[in-house]
Amino acid sequence: MSENVWNERYRQQERLWTMKTEPKIIKYLDLIEEGNILDLGIGEGRNSLPFTIDGFKIYGTDISEIALERCRENLGSKNSVLTNCDIRDYEIEQNKFTFIIASYILNFFKKSEINIIMDKIRKGVMKNGIVYVGALSLLEPNYKEIKIKCDEVEENTFYLENKKSFAHFFTQEELKEYFKDFEIICCMEGVEYDHGHGEPHYHGIIEFMARKK
């Protein structure tokens, strides 16, 4: 989706997303070393909130400037560097980050674009650094309907005309392959009740965390 589309979504609601940090990030918080944190598609900052303490510096990107304005208010400016851009255009400095977050953002890209982003993530995390990926999976309730009605432009990637956006659905094997040289901390798939935004609904999700050896 374009910057204008996301800005309009944020403009329509005072709070677009829940401000609760993903529970898996909280669960493994003690494994994350102090240093630089990168949150791709940071939104209003919910997943970076635990790192607004001494010892961490937060780098975040988002395509929506409205989201970043709210994020600045939530995180403060003392230890955060926020960039308004499409993550496809964001250059991740190699071996810089102790933790990289990609929470339910990669689904909006084509498989070929995801390949490039994942390569940047792998190179950007430092030794013993950790990657968190939250993503929609093939268990997504409307996946079968999308597969029938929408054009599959790449493997498990569809173009949704009504949203003017791509949608990619992940598998566990796919994520494990991206990070095959990493130590897997968790890889869990299931259907989850989501009441954090809009009307309550369900999502098929994968949560994946891995540490660079």
TL;DR of this structure?
The chain has 213 residues and is of the alpha/beta class.
Task: Please tag this protein with its features.
three-stranded antiparallel sheet, 213 residues, single chain, Rossmann fold
Description:
By secondary structure, the chain is α/β, with parallel strands linked by helices. The protein has one domain (3-212): Vaccinia Virus protein VP39 (Rossmann fold). Helix content is 25%, strand content 35%. The chain is built from six helices and ten strands, in the order ααββαββαβαβββαββ. The chain has helices spanning 3-12, 23-27, 65-75, 111-124, 143-149, 172-178, and strands at 35-40, 56-62, 80-84, 97-103, 125-136, 151-154, 157-160, 165-168, 182-194, 201-212. The protein has a seven-stranded mixed beta sheet with strand order 3-2-1-4-5-10-9. Strands 6-7-8 form a three-stranded antiparallel beta sheet, covered by helices on one side. A hairpin with a 2-residue loop joins β6 (151-154) and β7. It is globular and about 50 Å long.
